[in-house]
Design brief:
This protein is mainly alpha-helical. The protein is built from 7 helices and no strands. The protein is about 75% helix and about 0% strand.
Length: about 200
């Protein structure tokens, strides 16, 4: 009995210490994952906001072209990036639903396309070719709608309807002749620009 008591108490101490360390590590991991998800949610919100700015600016440029003028500069973000998604998403992707993962992954290449368009809209050569300029503005609007919709699905779940130029313009309180022309023609997306 005298031998069993010290061995049992030592084993009990090892078990309790191991259990406490395991619980501490699980709590720490859960907290880190929650913090990473919060950062990614903030990234998604910022991407939605920046994509909304791109849409609004694209519509302003299309309106100006409809009136026969050009806007010299744009107020689009310099670049839409996703630092927290890029850094943390792979580590915690398993914590998101399949639909959320799909929408985040499908949105990332679109950000690169939008950034290329933003850069080209600031290039004087793009403005020299009005057909190309109009096409870039329409593409910027379409890609912005795609990003806004992906962000909405990640944050709010499946959409009740798909977004288009009308619904986004209404949601963002955008008054536009270009949008009104689309509405009169009954086309929720602009037609392709031909040379």
């Amino acid at each position: 009995m005298e031998l069993i008591l010290p061995v049992a108490s030592s084993l009990f101490g090892i078990f309790v210490g191991f259990s406490l360390n395991l619980l501490r590590d699980m709590f720490k991991s859960r907290k880190e994952n929650t913090n990473k998800m919060t950062c990614i949610a903030e990234d998604i919100d910022r991407i939605r906001l920046d994509a909304s700015r791109v849409f609004i600016e694209a519509v302003k440029h299309l309106d100006a072209m409809g009136k026969g003028s050009l806007i010299v500069a744009h107020r689009m973000p310099g670049e839409i990036n996703s630092p927290y998604v890029d850094k943390h998403f792979v580590e915690i992707a398993h914590l998101y639903t399949q639909q959320q993962r799909h929408n985040i992954v499908s949105m990332l290449p679109t950000l690169k396309d939008i950034n290329a368009i933003i850069k080209s809209l600031g290039d004087p050569e793009t403005k020299a070719d009005l057909v190309s300029y109009k096409r870039q503005c329409m593409n910027a609007g379409n890609l912005a709608i795609f990003c806004i919709e992906r962000c909405d699905v990640v944050s709010d779940g499946p959409p009740k309807y798909h977004e288009d130029w009308f619904s986004i313009a209404m949601r963002l309180n955008v008054e536009s002749e270009f949008i009104n022309e689309l509405r009169q023609r009954g086309t929720p997306f602009p037609e392709k620009v031909t040379d």
